[in-house]
Amino acid sequence: MPKKILLDVDPGVVDAMALCWAFFDPMVEIAGITSVGGNVPAPVAAKNLQAIVEFIDPPRLPRMGFGTVPDEGLPSDYRHVHGIDGLGGTPLPVAELRSRHPAEKVICDIIRDDPENVIVIAMGPLTNIARALILDPELPRMIRHLYITGGTLNARGNVTPCAEFNIYADPAAAKTVLLAPFTKTLIPLEVTNPVMFSYSDLEQLPGTDFKLGSLFRSMLIPAFQAYRQCYGIEGIHIHDLVTYAVAVHPELAETKELAVDVEIEGQLTRGMTVIDARPIPEWTNGVDVVTKINEQEILREILLGLNDAANQME
Ligand code: RIB
Ligand code: CA
Questions:
Q1: Contact 258, 290 (CB under 8 A)
Q2: Which ligand has the shortest distance to the CA of 38?
Q3: Positive/negative CA dihedral, 28, 308, 242, 249
Q4: Residues 6 or more apart in contact with residue 142 via CB below 8 angstroms
């Protein structure tokens, strides 16, 4: 029985690749997709979501919702990695959507339509998820499971010394979500950073004579160049592909239930995920935090999924 999923994305090259995989993954049924500002401003994320869906041209269009910026605006983005357009400069045509439904309403409607059966996979800042929880206070008892790309176990951030980007971008939203009473799994940087995607991994994907092979290369090669220029690293992180793999194949990950909160005030520590790891924790909000994966196994699963998607699309 395929898992019913709702994807919340800030495309971004890797978010876009995870979307392409999901559309062809027999393990899932996409109930809906919502965009959120993060890697790129909200309007660009919305356009990219639509462009990817139009490129895939699925037999049945998924319900889509479009987020706006966090209440305090977007403090930073990753256009230096993903390009101004967020997809590595890939020229994807996109029609103008007539009515753009607000992301939080689409999230509430999809979950209410099938209580306790929708798995939400959050790959960007948690703005939309938090707004959905505020819009519908009954939501926590109806969400089957929420998987989140984000946070750190030991406060070694990527966007600041202490904070991971998705949490940093909207810490108040992250706090609301992580403290809400429902089942959620956090996939932190300590788990996703070691899973790098390199040129040799790209060579294991179908070539440019495949539609998705061409799209992946068009997005990834500029991202590889950006990583080399900005970080001196050969290859790129694929955080959201790891999250997607863990959400669909939870047996690939070891987790530990921990109480997690978010610093929203600190000048140096804004967006830091703080874990109560005291011998006798006093915080009680349990979050399943992924503590261990087998990087080779996860990367194999990702390559298999992307290859399968590329072959199915032809
Ligand atoms: O910190 C990594 C996360 O921030 C990823 O989801 C990436 O796409 C950006 O959203
Ligand atoms: Ca993302």
A1: no
A2: 1
A3: positive
A4: 111, 112, 115, 116, 118
Q: Which residues pair with 143 in a beta bridge?
A: 118
**CATH assignment of 3-313, among 2.40.50.40, 3.90.245.10, 3.40.50.2300, 3.30.565.10:** 3.90.245.10
Helix (H) or strand (E) holding 274: strand 273-275
For 109, other C-beta atoms within 10 Å of its C-beta total 16
> Which amino acids are annotated catalytic?
239
- Report domain extents, the chain: 3-313
Q: Report cis status (omega within 30 of 0) of the bond before 235.
A: no
pTM for the predicted model, two decimal places: 0.97
pLDDT in the model for residue 98: 65
Mean pLDDT of 65-82: 90
Q: What is the DSSP string of 9-50?
A: E--SHHHHHHHHHHHH-TTEEEEEEEE-SSSS-HHHHHHHHH
Q: Using alpha carbons only, what angle is made at residue 125 by residues 123 and 130, rounded to the nearest 5 degrees?
A: 110
Residue with tokens 């997690």: 260
Residue in the block written with tokens 């592909």:
241
Residue identified by tokens 């940087």 is 189
196, 227 contact by CB (below 8 A): no
Which ligand does the CA of 7 lie closest to?
2
Which residue in 9, 17, 14 sits closest to 212, CA to CA?
17
Report residues whose beta carbon is within 6 angstroms of any ligand 1 atom: 10, 12, 14-15, 38-39, 78, 123-124, 149, 158, 164-166, 239-240
Strand partners for 6 = 32, 120
- Dump pLDDT digits (tens) for 268-293: 999 999 999 999 999 988 999 999 99
Joined together, the tokens standing for residue 7 give 């994807």
